[in-house]
Design brief:
Length: about 100
């Protein structure tokens, strides 16, 4: 099983929870963690910005990554959504659960 973690951020409102629900409902993610409010400082279009956001951690398989990425871009409110993929190692039991939870059909 080829587990990956996908990181993204969402505005600090109910859209992060809606994204999580959609990705799990559509079997693109086995689990989505929506972390508490934080302040992000970043450069955007020549300006330094400070915005309230939530960190979102998406657990999925490498096989589901292309479809998850396309769906994330479709649902995301940002012009350039964060989409960072981290390789993951998991126990056999957890990996099997992620694989089963993301199996389409």
């Amino acid at each position: 099983m080829d587990l990956v973690l996908v990181l993204t951020t969402m505005p600090d409102d109910n859209r992060a929870d809606e994204l999580a629900q959609s990705l799990v409902d559509e079997r693109l993610a086995a689990c989505v963690n929506v972390h508490g409010p934080m302040i992000s400082t970043f450069r955007w279009k020549g300006q330094v910005e400070h915005e309230a956001e939530r960190q979102v951690v998406i657990k999925t398989t490498r096989a589901r990554l292309p479809e998850l990425g396309a769906r994330l871009r479709a649902l995301h409110p940002y012009e350039v959504p964060e989409l960072v993929v981290l390789e993951g190692n998991a126990s056999d039991a957890y990996g099997a659960w992620v694989n089963d939870a993301t199996r389409s059909g």
